[in-house]
Amino acid sequence: MFASALGAMVSLAVLAVGVALVPVGGAGLVLMPRMMAVLHRWTEWQRAQAGAVLGVDVPARPAPPAPAGVREQWRQLLMGTRARRDLRWTALHVVVGLPAALAALTVAGLLVNPVLEAPLWWLFPADEPLRLLVAVPVTGWRQAIGMGVAQVVLAAPLAWWALPRLARLHARACLAALAPSEADRLAERVGELTESRSNVLDAHAAELRRIERDLHDGTQARLVAIAMRLAMAREALDDDGGPVGRLLKDAHEGTEEAMTELRQVIRTMYPPVLADRGLAGAVAAVTAKAGLPVETDVSGLGAVPAAVETAAYFIVAEAVTNATKHSGAGHVTVRLASGRVLRIEVCDDGRGGVDESRGTGVTGIRRRAAALDGTLSIVSPPGGPTRLVVELPCAS
């Protein structure tokens, strides 16, 4: 307890040095996140020790992996609650832990000192003799043995009563300082749910890609082979062919229709162009088929998660389709840029006056964005122009 309290004091001093080094060539900017990571590991060890003292199960709370880059590390440090709890415990440990440790050392000293000092009473100066039982001077062996035994007998119950209580007081203070508040618990739970939803969406996107690939490479290829065989069988018959010829014709046409429907299902489920050419290429393919001039800017587009990529493709496709069919626009601009969020901006010079309640397709875009914790804003005054902006988080 005493050693950890001294360690807390040293930690506060070291952290103060780290803060002071922030303006000195930026050294503190690099050191502080690492110092806080070390402090968190120490506080987690203290939590485990406190739980063992109180006999309660304390689940470990390991720190999340440090992001790349000093800016992101500081953002994690300042926005999270973990660092504030660790600093709160360190300060409280100095205020509460140090006095409790000194009290424990005093009680332990009353028990141990007679055992160590009583046999050495004769080494003390005559004018400053050894004193046992707080103030009684020791001048002979009889006093040394008698009062030493008496002090041990009196101090033992005090130590038995006080030391465990001081340890539990320190442990409870430790757990209370490091326990997250209700707001912290809610924020952590929201973060966990956001991360789990992101993982589910990524798994769902991966499963859609697998199904699309299986349908494209398996089912569709078999339908193509069947259609080719039916076509060859039709050609092998006479011009009339009779009932068999008509059956083959119906089967051949039905197979062609099934392939057309299957391709449509594959495109709406997970567009093959997205898997083949990425989001930038898929957006270029959508705008090329728009039926009116579309200017595309994807220069700021980087890598984005698969679920976000899929949602962005369908959002762009829906927005461009709306502009083509309903706005009367002569020109559309599509811009995509990514960082911590993927920003999609679609502008047209049409008549404006977009109304979500009239089934303009904006409701579907809003739902796709909301599924990823994204936002949609649309400005469409009567007479135009219309500007639609969607932002989709790219990191949990």
The rounded Rg comes to 38 Å
Q: Which descriptor suits the 3D outline?
A: elongated
- Uncertain regions: pLDDT < 50 for 5+ in a row? none
| Main sheet properties | 5 strands, mixed
Helical fraction: 55-70%
Distance between the termini: 39 Å
Tally of discrete structural domains? 3
Query: What share of the residues does DSSP label as strand, in percent?
Result: 5-15%
Strand elements, count = 7
Keywords:
single chain, 396 residues, Heat Shock Protein 90, 3 domains, two-stranded antiparallel ribbon, 10 helices
Provide an overview of this structure.
The protein is of the alpha+beta class. The chain folds into 3 domains: 2-179, no CATH class; 184-269; 276-393, Histidine kinase-like ATPase, C-terminal domain (Heat Shock Protein 90), CATH 3.30.565.10. Helix content is 66%, strand content 10%. The chain has a 5-stranded mixed sheet, covered by helices on one side. The chain has a two-stranded antiparallel sheet with strand order 1-2. Helix 2 crosses helix 4 (82-117).
What's a quick, concise take on this entry?
This protein is α+β, with helices and mostly antiparallel strands. The strands form two sheets. A five-stranded mixed beta sheet has the order 3-4-5-7-6, covered by helices on one side. It has ten helices and seven strands.
